[in-house]
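ok trying again, last paste got cut off:
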Amino acid sequence: MTHRLDRAEARAIAVRAQLLDAHRPGDLLDVVRRLTLLQIDPTAAIAPNADLVAWSRLGSGYATAQLTEALERDRTLFELNALIRPIEDLRLYRADMAAWPQWEGRRQWLRSNESFRRDVLARLREAGPLLSRDIPDTAVVPWVSTGWTHNQNVTQLLESLMMRGEVAIAARRGRQRLWDLAERVYPEDVDVVPAEEAHCIRNQRRLQALGIARAKTTAFPMQPGDVGDAGEPATVEGVPGEWRVDPAAIGQPFTGRTALLSPFDRLLHDRRRAEELFGFEYQLEMYKPKDKRRWGYFALPVLHSDRLVGKLDATADRKDGRLVVHALHEDVPFTGAMRDDVREEIDRLAEWLQLSVGEPGPGAARPDDLT
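nice, full thing came through this time. structure:
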C-alpha cells in the first residue's frame, strides 16, 4: 500500500516526529531516545548544537549540565563519532565496530602500527582517562593526509580504536575529549545484534525520528538519514518520487508551536528534503565571506507551526551579556501574531542563555569577531 499525503500532512508528520510540536517531551533522555542522536559541533555562536537542539525541544527546563551528567556520570548516553546516542543503542553498533574499518588503507595503517596500538592501550589502562596530548606518539608509520589530520597519529589511532570499540570517550573538557578503555565507559555484557538486523532496526528508528524520508538521502554523512525499506511507501502531493513514511505517524492530531532551530537540526539536516516538504532554502553561511551572506553567520531557522518561515541572525555576546539580534529574515510575510510568537521565543532563548536581548550597537562584534 502506498500512502498519498498532501504537503501539510507530510510537514506535520516531520515536525511531530522531531518533537517540535506543542507536546514537549519529558526529559533529555527521552529526547535522545526518540531523535536517536544529538550531533556534536564546536560552533557556538549561540550555543553548542547538542544543547541548542535539546533546548528547542525541552525549553527552559533544560540545563546544559544535564547532558554532561548523562554522558559522564549516569552513562545513559554515550558519544561515538561526534554523535551522542542512548547507551542502550550501543548494541546496534557493536557488529559494525567488530568489522571496522572497511577501507584497506586504514586497515594497513593499523596493521603497521600494532605496537603503537598496544602502547596506547597500556597507557590508558595505567593512567586513563587522558587527553590525546597526554599520550606519547610511538607510531611506526605516520598518518598521511593532504588535510589537517596529517601526522596527527595519536588522534587518528584513538579515533580508529573508538570506531572498533576498544576505547571510548569518557568525558569532555571544553572541546577536548578524554579517552579511556571502552570497558571502563561502556556497560558490561552488551548484547551484540547481528549487523543486518542492527541495520534494519536503526533504519526503522531513524524513520520514526524523521517521520517521513527518502530511502536514500543527500544528507551530510555525520547526520545519517538513509532509512532503506523501513516503514511504508508514500507519495507527497506536488513532489516527485517515492518516500518512506512511519505508518504510525499518519493521521495523528497536530498542534504546532514556534521554535528557533539549530542550523544542524535534524528537521532540516537534509536540505533537499527541507526544500521539497517545506519550500525552505537554507545554507550555513559561516564559511562564506561576509559580503556573500544572505542570512548571517549562524542564522537560526524559524519554525512556526508546520512551516519553516524565516531565519534569525543573532549572536550570543557573553562578554556584554547580550543576545544580539542582527536581523530577522522573513521568508514569508509575518502576521502580527507570528512576529509576537517569534519575539517571545527570542526572549526565551535569551533567558535560557542568561542574556538580555539587544540590538547591535555601533562597532558591535559580529560572530566572526567573537571567541
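cool. The longest helix spans residues 336-353. The CA atoms of residues 19 and 44 lie 23 Å apart.
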